[in-house]
Design brief:
Layout: H1 16-25, H2 28-52, H3 57-62, H4 66-89, H5 93-117, H6 121-126, H7 130-150
Helix pairs in contact: 2-4, 2-5, 4-5, 4-7, 5-7
């Protein structure tokens, strides 16, 4: 009768574990490349968004303005959703970067349109009106979710 051993104990002469590990690590360079593109796009979005908005997000957040934190946080989530979809569905790094840029433009335009629809939105966020920040965040996340769904080509 052959002796069976637990599956979690491997014979050191068995190269299966080593081969599996090396095969898994082959995915590390693409992961790092996509992650670097995503971080670069995320940082670019943060600066472009804060440049387009007339209020100064970083100063307001440092001053503990909850409305600004909600609005900016919602915009970040609203951008991250389609960016993750672009990463998941892209055919290459360039494809991912292009669709990430599309997501960036859509999210910035979302604020521009919302600013037209909601009177004095930046001023209300600057004053700390939580409702204005929450609405801005909710719209940014909703548009980001829709944007992500559209990227499942």
């Amino acid at each position: 009768m052959a002796e069976s051993r637990p599956t979690f104990i491997y014979n050191l002469r068995d190269n299966t574990v080593l081969e599996t590990t090396l095969t898994t690590l082959n995915g590390l360079p693409p992961f790092l490349a996509y992650f670097a593109v995503a971080v670069a796009l995320f940082v670019a979005f943060s600066f472009i968004y804060s440049w387009v908005t007339p209020h100064h997000e970083f100063e307001l957040i440092r001053a503990n303005n909850v409305s600004a934190a909600l609005a900016f946080g919602g915009a970040l989530i609203g951008f991250a959703l389609p960016l993750s979809s672009a990463i998941s569905h892209s055919l290459s790094i360039l494809d991912c970067a292009i669709w990430g840029a599309v997501a960036l433009v859509v999210q910035v335009l979302t604020f521009v349109v919302l600013r037209v629809l909601v009177r004095q939105l930046p001023e209300r966020i600057t004053k700390g009106e939580v409702a204005a920040g929450a609405l801005s965040a909710a719209v940014a996340i909703a548009v980001g979710h829709i944007n992500a769904a559209c990227m499942t080509y």
